Records
---
Amino acid sequence: MAELFYQGHASFRITTDSGCVIYVDPYAGKGYDEPADLVLVSHEHFDHNNIKLVKLKKNGKIYRSSDLLVNGEYRSVEFNGVQIQATPACNKNHPIEQCVGFLITADQRTIYAAGDTSKTSYMSEKLANIAIDYALLPTDGVYNMNVHEASECAKVIGAKHNIPIHMVVGDLFDEKIADAFQANGKIVLKPGMKIRL
């Protein structure tokens, strides 16, 4: 069964049933020892794009926001049985033309990695109509929406499970913010924890 390993901040790793390894926003924590099939970078801030941490497999691919958002078009790609759809991500600290989130579908599971964002109309207009199994939402309240807005977004999106991430500036995890996040199917992951998808 596929698994998600949380490294902290906005960094996590997905391993599919077939052994496809996907890193999202490499920067924080440990667990970069498995060579990658895919690396997804939501935007080019230093705390999301440290691809030097990851060793690519021979045919591995790196997709940056600039690869998946071209002339206002949010693109999709398929690789090793994994479907990646770029989604809007933006706020006052993250220009909409430079940032994306990701819908990642593998092993009949769909994960929404919101990227650095605040609430967007896309969440209610599109995501609410998609069967999302896991939504990972930023909650720091400085560079992104705060935990209360993230809780509202979770309700709008309606994923089966919701995971607060990107909790506090300069640290990998914050217990108080995790506790304050309110959402159906809430899962709190501390750095180094993994779940079966």
---
Amino acid sequence: MTKQGESSEEKYRAAGYERVEPKATYAPWSDDVAFLRVNDVIKEHTLVDRYRCYELWQLVAQAMKTPGDLLEVGVWRGGTGAIIAAQAARRNRKRCVYLADTFTGVVKAGSRDRYYRGGEHANTSVEHVGRVLNTLELDNTRVLAGVFPDETAEQVAAEDGLCFCHIDVDVYEGAKDVTEWVLPRLNPGGIIVYDDYGFYGCEGVTEFVNGIMDKTGLVLVHNLNGHAVIVKAGNSTRD
């Protein structure tokens, strides 16, 4: 509990957080023309900063060395979904990018979630996402409206499995349910990215990811830009 007069820094530290300022200076996004073109279109349609967007851009390229389609759960206004779809289209337009969102805000908030109560980030629509995708002339996507996986997972054909999943659902139960659906369908070499791992207010997602860190068959990296990245190293995901 925050004490009266407690500073933001003290509040963060009490919850196990602090401001992270890496000293690295390599900036490959600065002259990646294809990325910059896409980012210029989507930057007003996402809360994800340029550094994480570029990491998604790079990880999609790596993941597509593995067979399978791609999935994002937690699309909001379509910015990161367009990043994923644009990179996927550059590599192989036959791969489908599924973009799943309730379009009515956050769901499944619970006691493990410090900030979210449900209904946040509802200022979006299927139509808005469609306009963003159309601006970039992306025809390799399928938008799923409803709670995933509960209501829309059956719409994911993915006959060759999945190679990539971006999970941006903000809360513990949402991250858990999506992960449990994705992992058996994720091909070896496939990648899961959790957007909410590194941020105060999303402690539920951090707790969930930390809880699966020791599963066999998974390699987990905490990237200091705020992502947790999982690579499926084998077929087994049992404890």
---
Amino acid sequence: MPGMVRRRPSYAYSRYQEPIALAIRVGAVLALAGVVVLFAGPIGYRLGLFSLTVAADRIFVWGANLAGAAAVLSLLGLLVTFTRRREARRGFGRAVLAIAVGAAAFNAGGRWPFATSPPALHDVTTDTQDPPAYVTVAQLRGTDTPAALTYGGEPLASRQRAAYPDIQPLQLAVSRDEAVTRALAAVRELGWTLVSADGTAGRIEASAATRLFGTVDDVVVRVSAADGGSRVDVRSTSRDSVGGSSNATRVRAVLDALSPS
């Protein structure tokens, strides 16, 4: 009719947006699930719900591997997204976050398929024939000390040689006293708990706890005079007999800190 204004329809069509790639959505969920499972290991161990073997070698590893798989899946989803037209590329931030989280979790405790991991030796030393002895640590630990701190002999030494051939005594072209001073500074720099430092005997003892599980390793550094300078031997021993994943790392940390740059 004249004078009447035609009204527009009350409905409107919204702009269609392609959904986020399925691989990105699934990858994000799996990355979150992997991290939850990963942290369930150390939390459960600290609460006494799991043994160290179950918590560290199963739950922790399963969570890390799940998060690693999520990172790979998210990467595939990201590649698929880049094949779409520019305005349809959605989920980029979610994919990048899942990749970063998954990669970090896998790096913390994941294991590659069909790859053989080095054995987690509960006692690692640079001198398998005459390992540095614990003195103050042995006195503080008391009745459980003899068996726990007694070196395993040739069977353990042969396993270490096969697993960690690079762990050897360190020769320094400095005096014994200077080497002791440097070793003491290295132990403090690493943030370990200093138990004792005997300059006369050339022996430093310390303890260090793992961040996630809270398991404790005892470490002893022995410095002796040698031709042309001094010799440094290091030993790391886990208090839990089924532990040991950090011992080689702790020995290498001291050797690396003292090695000439």
---
Amino acid sequence: MDKQVKPNSVLFLELFTEIEQKLKEICKDEFHSTFSELLRKAEKHSDVVYHFASDLKEFAQLRNAIVHTRRQNFIIAEPHDEVIAEMKKIHRLLYNPPKVFTVMTKNPVFTTPDDLLVDLITNFSTKRIRRCPVVEKGSIVGMVTARTITNWLASTKDTEISIKSIKIRDVLEFTDKDEFIVVAKNSDILSLIGQFRNSLKQGRYIQAALVTDNGSIKSNLIGIVTPSDLPRLIEKVNYAD
């Protein structure tokens, strides 16, 4: 005998209740706040909630329509399949968000302070990379970009130098710590997207998210995510499993 399929209205209310419970957990809400109040508080602490706040507001109105227009044997406001699919996605992102380690480039190219700058420039060309983390004794100490090299060259315009003898440590003072962030491998992807987004609002441009086991700059570099990866990150969110 086939298992009875739940109507969309029942599925919707079950999902909505669990999403509401997650909002309470995010807000550490011990009182009986309304859903709107929970949403307003939670979107300050959760990138998932922030990202889907408008959808959740509309779903709250639909929840009210379902609850307050029940009839004895039927539901007046029966949600479409597309609504259920969107609710399931938000539910998955709240309870099991995709992690950064699933999208990062593993074992990225890096350099050390004692490496030669000319070798890094060669790597920029042959490996088609635009930035390179600098690691010393297992810690991230900076990131060299084309801008770093340009700024260093500008500082040497009145000096005769041989670039072949220049080491990475000689250009470290020209690196910009605002050009990268360090994130943990188990950070959720929407949080990372939020950091990229917020940096633009602040007039900064993050060239890379450097990934370590625990998000500490003193931990081993295991991956990298760059702005060119953003379409892949967004796709991962849209089709979260």
